[in-house]
């Protein structure tokens, strides 16, 4: 399926005259078992696409909340192969919800691009966001992905001009992830008025849906981003639910809390007409 699942998710959201809800969780936080339960809770409460974070020791784009989540997952012994196994478990019962692996290049490079792409496709992963692998460096992975129908999802930022947007779009598929703030995840609040023109430009240049993330934590912020974007990405707010569960020692509270937040966001997005 690969990119077809992603395209279907955006088509469904467009048919319902709303922006897509893209949710993120860190695999292995607070545990792999609870991560699986959380994925189901996100799906059941309106997530259109799930980004599955692969923990890494040096997460340069991630703010404190996701950094801590990654460290907790690593302390649990979570490896890239565990993340793929988690995706495969979810995919056994869900052939519809797109799964995007979000992480960094080093673990994938260590596994080997060919081995990783085959394992990801077999696990039901539909594409990946490799934060530190820019267009100039991803040709090898992109070629292998194309054989398996997997999407290379790229990042654009408020500093991306039209020439750079064309480079970002070249070989990309699925959607473009627009980083709404000049900073790391969870830092500050995004200003939709400040980025609306750039989002429109990236959409025009790429011909792909544009999802806005970083700095979006609640329904009110999601509503404002939905007015300018095809999808809204929320990550740190979900990861903080896992942190709460970890701190309380009640891991079983993470998934219901994430599901509740997903439901709040989905209901908020349903009220924003894209017409």
Write the layout of secondary structure elements.
Elements: H1 3-15, E1 20-26, H2 32-44, E2 49-53, H3 64-75, H4 80-93, E3 99-103, H5 105-111, H6 113-123, E4 127-130, H7 139-148, E5 151-152, E6 154-156, H8 162-169, E7 176-179, H9 192-206, E8 210-213, H10 219-226, E9 231-234, H11 236-248, H12 254-270
Parallel strand pairs: 1-2, 1-9, 2-3, 3-4, 4-5, 6-7, 7-8, 8-9
Helix pairs in contact: 2-4, 2-12, 3-11, 4-6, 5-6, 6-7, 8-9, 10-12, 11-12
What would your notes on this structure say?
Keywords: Amino-acid biosynthesis, Aromatic amino acid biosynthesis, Lyase, Tryptophan biosynthesis. Tetramer of two alpha and two beta chains. InterPro entries: Aldolase_TIM (IPR013785), RibuloseP-bd_barrel (IPR011060), Trp_synthase_alpha_AS (IPR018204), Trp_synthase_suA (IPR002028). It is an enzyme of class 4 (lyase). This is Tryptophan synthase alpha chain. With 275 residues, this protein is an alpha/beta fold. The protein has a single domain, classed as Aldolase class I (TIM Barrel, Alpha-Beta Barrel). It contains twelve helices and nine strands. The protein has helices at 3-15, 32-44, 64-75, 80-93, 105-111, 113-123, 139-148, 162-169, 192-206, 219-226, 236-248, 254-270; strands at 20-26, 49-53, 99-103, 127-130, 151-152, 154-156, 176-179, 210-213, 231-234. Strands 5-4-3-2-1-9-8-7-6 form a nine-stranded parallel sheet. β6, α8 and β7 (176-179) form a beta-alpha-beta unit. α2 runs parallel beside α12, α10 (219-226) crosses α12 and α11 runs antiparallel to α12. It is globular. The mean pLDDT is 93.
